[in-house]
Amino acid sequence: MGIHTNITRIGTLVAATLLCATPTLAQDAMAGQKPTGKIVKITVRNLTTGQPFSPSYFESRGKSGAPLFKLGDKASDALVAVAEGGNIGNFSVAAAMNKGAAIGDAALAIHILPGQERSFVIHVDKDHPLVDGVWMLGNTNDGFSGVSGVDAYALTAPVTISPRGYDAGSEKNNEKKGYLGALGGGNERDPENGVIAYHAGIRGDADAPKSWNWDVNKPVAEVTITPLRAGF
Fold first, then answer.
1. Residue 128 DSSP one-character state
2. What's the CATH class of domain 37-230?
3. How far is CA 54 from CA 49, 57, 80, 114, 146, in A?
4. What is the pLDDT of residues 104-130, one digit of tens each?
5. Beta strands 221-230 and 56-61: pairing type?
6. Crossing angle of helices 77-85 and 89-97, rounded to 10°
7. Domain ranges of the chain
8. pLDDT tens digits, one per residue of 177-215
9. How far, CA to CA in Å, does 35 sit from each of 24, 38, 106, 216, 223?
10. Contact criterion met (CB below 8 Å) for 46 and 59
């Protein structure tokens, strides 16, 4: 039996351990205002054969807001938590608190195994037109993928983005049991203190099997964003 899509929208109040909440973030922010936004559907498809995707975190933000990641930058603590352990909790808590109304909406999705896809919806508006999203490449030390700065508010037709795999630069790719959590034996850290870069793939010269590798010059996912309706 296949795994059914399971999406949790983020609410406005949260405890420190929040991983999901009620679907009120965008609705509360828009209470009493004239509808100006639109709903878009996001479909994430896993193109790899050996890399399960962790739960995904997506948000809509303003053009002046900080992206979830940027090549060449140092990864934030929240991104490190995703890339090293698949933990999207820090991002979801920040969205639920939504200081300064920097985030228009946010959505979470469950794991996506190789060959699978997940679809969910998110709200965008003129103040929060851009969509970012991240997830861990589950069989890596600190690999992840995602999209950044897609202007979903301007869309009049579906668009597909094909992101490659990224390295958070926070942990050495030693591919050893006890450090790479998918191998079992723990998930200790082997700090690298680097920056975000394209991932070099799985070498297969330690404990991780070569079958977990992918063509690092090709995308690991397809992310299709489809405008559904306006005036929400």
1. B
2. mainly beta
3. 15, 9, 13, 11, 11
4. 999 999 999 999 999 999 999 999 999
5. unpaired
6. 140
7. 37-230
8. 999 999 988 889 999 999 999 999 999 999 999 999 999
9. 15, 9, 18, 42, 26
10. no
